[in-house]
User: Which sequence fits this backbone?
């Protein structure tokens, strides 16, 4: 945390990477599909 406080460039870079990961990996439709797939697998309906 101290390093991020002192290094604003690193803070900005990590923030941008985190926002991009959220946009890429946690889109609502993708999450809904993955959850539905998981429920189907757990219920034995593949």
Assistant:
């Amino acid at each position: 945390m101290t390093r991020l406080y002192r290094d604003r460039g690193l803070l900005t870079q990590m923030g941008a990477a985190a926002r991009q990961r959220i946009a890429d990996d946690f889109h609502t439709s993708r999450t809904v599909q993955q959850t539905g797939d998981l429920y189907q697998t757990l219920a034995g309906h593949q």
The chain has one domain: 2-42. The chain has a mean pLDDT of 93. The longest helix spans residues 8-25.
